Amino acid sequence: MTESVLVAMPVHDAWLARVRERLPGGVVDCREPIRPGQRLPVAEIGERTVLFADHVPANAEDMPALRWIQLGSAGYQQLAGRQLAAGVRVTNASGVNDVPIAEWCVLMMLALARRLPDSLRDQAERRWDRDVSYQSELRGRRVGIFGYGSIGREVARLCRALGLEVWAVARSGVEPRPHRYHPDDSLEEVRPDRGFAPAQLDAFLRGLDVLAITSPLTPRTRGVFGARELALLPRHAVLLNPARAHVVDESALLAALRDGTLAGAALDSHYREPMPPDDPFWTAPNTIVTPHVSGSTGSTHFADRVWDLFARNLDRYRTGAPLLNEIDPADWRH
C-alpha cells in the first residue's frame, strides 16, 4: 500500500529528508500545525493514511483512509470523543520531553529545599541571612511520583542519583515497559523503592517529603488530589506539578498553600494559561510559578527527538513491528 503522510508539525529539514527516504513511492506533504477545532479541505486530508500532528482536524470524519496518528505531544486529551476511522492507531510523544521535565523537577526540589526564592529576595534587598533553613539537603528524602510513565521514570532516575528514596503510584504497575521511546536506549530503567496501586493512594501520600505529579489528565486523574488527599501529606511536604493542573483540585490546592497544609509548591501547568495578572497562584505562599516551560516544543532537543520518534515508528509501522508509545483506544476515545 502506498502511504500518504501529512506532517502538521514544525519541519526539521534533515529529518524530513530521512522520512521521505523511508517511503520510496510514498507521499509526504507538510503544512502548518493544525489548530484546535480547525477544519481542513477534504482534498488535503481525504486520502491520508498517516498523520503526524498535535491535533487532528475538526472534520476528522473526512479521513476514511487514516490508519495511524503520531502525536507531537505526550498528552492525548485532544482526541477525547473524536470520531476517527475504525482501526486508527494512536501513538504519543512520551519520552521526547522527559529529560527537561525531570530536570525541572530536580531544580524545583532544590529551590524549595534551599529556599532559593527567599535567597534571591535577600540578594535584591542586600540582606545577609545565614538561617539554617537555607542549608538543608535533599539526600535521604522521599519523593513520591504519581504516574509512573516515561516522565515519572526519568524523574526517578535523577532522584535516585541524588540519593532520594523513590515511591511511585502507577495504574499499570512499575515493571519495565516494552516498546516505549527514550532518546538514549542504553540507559537501564530505574525501579522505585516501593510501588503502589491507585487504591493505596492514602498510604503513599502519608510517607512523602515531595509529591511529583507526572500523570496525564484523564477522567480517572481529574481532581484526584482534593482537600482530603492533600491533608494526608505531612505538613513539611511540597508538591511539584509539571503535568496538568487539573489533576489537583484548584480550590483545595490554594487553601492548602494558604493554611500551611502544604509547605510549598512548584507549578508549571496552570488552571488558566496564560495566567492573568490577578491569578491567585502568583502570590500563593511559598509557591514557584513557571509558565509551562518544563518541557515544550522550545526544549533544546525537542525537534530532533520528536522527529526521531516519528521516523522510528514509521519503520515499525511499515514492517508490522509494535509501535512505540501506542495508546490503548479505550484511553483516548473517552
UniProtKB/TrEMBL annotation:
Quote the Gene3D superfamilies the UniProt record gives. Answer: NAD(P)-binding Rossmann-like Domain
- Could you tell me the keywords of this UniProt record? NAD, Oxidoreductase
Which one Pfam family would you cite for this protein? 2-Hacid_dh_C
This chain's protein is named D-2-hydroxyacid dehydrogenase
Q: Where is the D-isomer specific 2-hydroxyacid dehydrogenase NAD-binding domain?
A: 107-294
The UniProt GO MF terms for this protein read: NAD binding; oxidoreductase activity
InterPro entries to which the protein is assigned, alphabetical: D-isomer_DH_NAD-bd (IPR006140), NAD(P)-bd_dom_sf (IPR036291)
Judging by the UniProt lineage, the source's domain of life is Bacteria
